[in-house]
Amino acid sequence: MLTISNLHAAYGKVQVLHGISLDVPKGKVVTLIGSNGAGKTTTMRAISGMLKPKEGTVSLAGKDITGLDSHKIARAGLAHSPEGRRVFATMTVKDNLLLGAFPRFTGSRNRGDIDTDLQKAMELFPRLRERRDQLAGTLSGGEQQMLAMARAVMLNPEVILLDEPSMGLAPILVDEVFRIIQRLKHEGMTMLLVEQFAAAALAVADYGYVLENGKISVHGPAASLQNDPAVKAAYLGGNSQH
């Protein structure tokens, strides 16, 4: 569904990604774990068009989307829930969600039943239903994170990129975010998940990749990575409570 091959990316002269390749099959959750500065968010940005790759290819459902503008990549069916949430603070919760469906209103994505999907998003994220008419900027950090995820779902995408959905959240909200990811997975949503809580990410994922210094150091079924002594020692030591 989403295939990244030999991806190189840089900020100016600072090379961050050194030829990474990964595959996100349809209906699966794939996680990308690694320490801070390994290049996880850069990978997400290069996939979604926020950063132009220097080399390599990104294909979505067989279509080459490498280096396209972000709005064209969204129209192709890739939704990005970015690190740091990035909600539209001066718009209501409901309008943020409808903005997520914008390519469906313009005809560049299959329209489907937007109203039904809006109700479904509110069911998935009950806090958002309670606050649907509030300005997004007045929500708590956890609520903004849920709004960013729900906005991505509203695209009715082929693939969702979830970049650090638990960042800065209290443990109880981290648990809730992962319950929602589990439910989306159960509904057949294809997701690439970047996450600081490696243990929680591997528990929900089907397959995992470990990124070190801009290169994939190890990859395999999530269950085998959970039991890999090197992965355990490097990434699972302090996060096993999740």
From TrEMBL:
Keyword annotations from UniProtKB, A to Z: Amino-acid transport, ATP-binding, Cell membrane, Membrane, Nucleotide-binding, Transport
Gene3D superfamilies: P-loop containing nucleotide triphosphate hydrolases
InterPro entries given in the database record: AAA+_ATPase, ABC_branched_ATPase_LivF/BraG, ABC_transporter-like_ATP-bd, ABC_transporter-like_CS, BCAA_Transport_ATP-bd_LivF, P-loop_NTPase
GO MF entry, a single one: ATP hydrolysis activity
Pfam families: ABC_tran
CDD domains membership: ABC_TM1139_LivF_branched
Keyword hit for RNA-binding: no
An individual GO BP term: L-amino acid transport
SMART domains: AAA
PROSITE patterns: ABC_TRANSPORTER_1, ABC_TRANSPORTER_2
Keyword Transcription regulation: no
Residues annotated as domain ABC transporter: 2-238
Domain of life: Bacteria
Family: Belongs to the ABC transporter superfamily.
Matching PANTHER family: HIGH-AFFINITY BRANCHED-CHAIN AMINO ACID TRANSPORT ATP-BINDING PROTEIN LIVF
Name of the protein in its database record: ABC transporter ATP-binding protein
